[in-house]
């Protein structure tokens, strides 16, 4: 198994917010390989253009509806991830795994990729609405989100997953009733 890991918004290069999951996966899959992709450092509009690691810029920080994002930067991130996926000979055992904004980006990249992957694993994210204009492959998806999440609203995530479920995508959505975003 090969895991391509997309950290979340503002995560440092040590990936300490997602590394606990990698350790769990290493226990279960000791021969798996893990490749962390660092998002670029870029100015973020909602933070007065201070520079942070981000797959794309946020123009708004809505919590109960989808935030406004820089779609061009999302497309650039998608293209980068597609190039990386193209470097693998066998995609059946390649999994995109993302946390928060990395989850959103993993879902976007995986669902718009033209070839079948092992799957997409998403933690505390949603599918950006722009992704639905470019769907390619019904990838297997396992996602989880906390009902008390105030960073990416639970209903925003659920609504995006419901769209896929309506179209018979192989998606398993696990709701964590007491979980927030951390």
Model description:
With 182 residues, the chain is an alpha/beta fold. It has helices at 19-28, 71-86, 101-111, 154-166, and strands spanning 2-6, 33-36, 41-44, 50-53, 94-99, 119-123, 141-146, 171-176. Helix 2 crosses helix 3. The radius of gyration is 15 Å and the shape is globular.
Provide a concise account of the structure shown:
The protein has 182 residues and is of the alpha/beta class.
Keywords:
182 residues; alpha/beta; six-stranded parallel β-sheet; two-stranded antiparallel ribbon; 22% strand
List the helices and strands and how they pair.
Blueprint: E1 2-6, H1 19-28, E2 33-36, E3 41-44, E4 50-53, H2 71-86, E5 94-99, H3 101-111, E6 119-123, E7 141-146, H4 154-166, E8 171-176
Parallel strand pairs: 1-2, 1-5, 5-6, 6-7, 7-8
Antiparallel strand pairs: 3-4
Helix pairs in contact: 2-3
């Amino acid at each position: 198994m090969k895991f391509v890991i997309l950290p979340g918004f503002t995560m440092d290069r040590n990936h300490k917010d997602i590394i606990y999951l990698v350790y769990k996966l290493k226990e279960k899959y000791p021969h798996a390989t893990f490749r962390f992709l660092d998002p670029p450092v870029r100015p973020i509009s909602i933070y007065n253009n201070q520079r942070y690691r981000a797959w794309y810029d946020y123009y708004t920080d809505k919590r109960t509806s989808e935030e406004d994002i820089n779609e061009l930067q999302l497309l650039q991130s998608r293209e980068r991830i597609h190039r990386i996926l193209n470097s693998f000979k066998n995609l059946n055992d390649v999994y995109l795994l993302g946390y928060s904004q990395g989850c959103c980006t993993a879902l976007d990249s995986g669902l718009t990729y033209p070839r079948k992957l092992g799957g997409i694993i998403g933690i505390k994210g949603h599918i950006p609405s722009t992704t639905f204009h470019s769907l390619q492959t019904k990838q297997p998806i396992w996602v989880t989100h906390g009902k008390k999440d105030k960073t990416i609203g639970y209903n925003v995530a659920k609504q995006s997953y419901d769209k896929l479920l309506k179209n018979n995508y192989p998606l398993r959505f696990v709701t964590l009733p007491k979980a927030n975003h951390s």
